[in-house]
Amino acid sequence: FNCSACTKPAECKSAANLVHWSQHSKNYWIKWGAASDMLLLEHSDPNSADANTTLTDVCSCLWSANTPLCASPTYYLEVSKIPSCLTYAGYNVGTVTALADLKDGFFKCTNAAFCGWLSTTTNPCTGAVTAYTTSTTVGYATCDDAESITNSSAGKEAFKAAFEASLAGVKVTDTVLTKMGCDTTRRLSDNTRILQTTKPQVKGKFDYTSPKEAVPKQNTFASQLTTQLQAKNLPYQGMTVKTFAAAVKMTTAPTPAPTPAPTPMVDAAV
Predict the structure, then answer these.
(1) How far is CA 65 from CA 21, 57, 62, 96, in A?
(2) CB 270 within 8 A of CB 13
(3) CA 151, 152, 157, 159: dihedral to nearest 10 degrees?
(4) SS3 assignment, position 139
(5) DSSP 203
(6) Residues 42-75 pLDDT 10s
(7) Residue 174 belongs to what H/E stretch?
(8) Residues near 190 by beta carbon (within 8 Å), at least 6 away in sequence
(9) CA 50 vs CA 25, 31, 43, 118, 133: distances in Å
(10) What's the order of all strands across the beta sheet hosting 19-23?
């Protein structure tokens, strides 16, 4: 996308590689996720036809009208009503709201974990949650690609954010990534070695809490993971995601991971 072509160039800024924003020529403030999965046009009047139409126009300009985000429904978002237990890209609601200085307005979103409640008006934070664990494997073209994922904190963050974006109401408490299939040889006996034929893979193991027993759909997670890896400049081309293992209830609830500290807003070209 090209922020300068769609909004005022001098106002194109971002925070923590999480949220970008700028001002429209009509003086509306526009904010969108770095993963291209949410778009907000701030306006205090939920009945403003012009603001609603402008949101659609900006979306088509930044991306294109046929992208999943632009084709998704438009809601009027009241920031105060965002369920407190939700997360976006690993950040809790309070942190996201503060970093982006979010205000009420017209809203499009394809991040199911952060926005799914808008279509049902059901608060996913009410009621008890249960701790589960599950896993999947993601195939890669080369061992270098697999290693760049498992050897970086950004890779772990991408897998976690993709998981949370694929299931409404879940909170990932621990993510473990393991590289597999990258030993060039394996031993058959003390004196015999043959070539390893297993393809490079990354196994992702997730401990999480959820209001119901569920795992991400294969295609949904693959799409979200592609978006997250692209945003972090990590390899994603040619990867294949396998079906998740059935959720297993944990006997002891895991300790929630600490919330990342807020990062000060910085000016940056989008």
Answers:
(1) 19, 8, 9, 26
(2) yes
(3) -40
(4) strand
(5) E
(6) 999 999 999 999 999 999 999 999 999 999 999 9
(7) strand 171-180
(8) none
(9) 13, 17, 10, 22, 46
(10) 13-15, 19-23, 29-33, 38-42, 105-109, 75-77
Question: Which H or E element spans position 227?
Answer: helix 218-231
Higher pLDDT, 3 or 263: 3
- Reported as a single tens digit per residue, the pLDDT across 218-238 is 999 999 999 999 989 999 999
**Residue 20, token pair as written in the block:** 């970008």
Structure tokens at 205: 């193991």
Distance CA(142)–CA(155), nearest Å, equals 16
The token pair at 198 is 């297993």
Which residues touch 58 (CB under 8 Å, ≥6 apart)?
6, 7, 24, 30, 39, 41
125 and 169 Cβ atoms separated by less than 8 Å: yes
Q: For residue 110, what are its two tokens? A: 């394809």
Q: Alpha-carbon Rg of the chain, whole angstroms?
A: 20
Query: Among all chains, which residue has been given the structure tokens 């795992």?
Result: 215
Residue 82 above 60 pLDDT?
A: yes
Q: Is 270 helix (H, G, I), strand (E, B) or coil?
A: coil
What is the DSSP secondary structure assignment for residue 83, as one 8-state letter? -
